[in-house]
Amino acid sequence: DTVGFVLHSLLLVPYFSWQRSHAVHHSRTNHMEEGETHVPFTWDSVKGQANYALKEVLGPALWNVVNLFIHLVVGWPAYLISGATGGTKYGVTNHFWPIKPFSDGLFPTDFLKK
């Protein structure tokens, strides 16, 4: 935990909440509702259809550049602050403040003792 805490602190990523969400991510990878991160929009959702339409308009090369920018510059901070790319099961989460009013489903009470 010490090495992880130091390295994550250098990257400005909260270690203990990341440790928990990363474990959930690996246990629920590819689940469309319980996934923790990188959960794609479903085709029948408004966001899913808008995402597909934008991909068609931009073309493959520009879509990849835009998608990379969105993931790294917008998505990463949004994920840490609000769980923006997570599934619907956990609601709004926050890696910096993993207690209520944010979801306690992702960060159970025993976890908060760390």
UniProtKB/TrEMBL annotation:
GO molecular function annotations of the record: oxidoreductase activity
Residues annotated as signal peptide: 1-23
Superkingdom, natural source: Eukaryota
Alphabetical UniProt keywords: Signal
UniProt keyword Signal present: yes
Record-given protein name: Uncharacterized protein
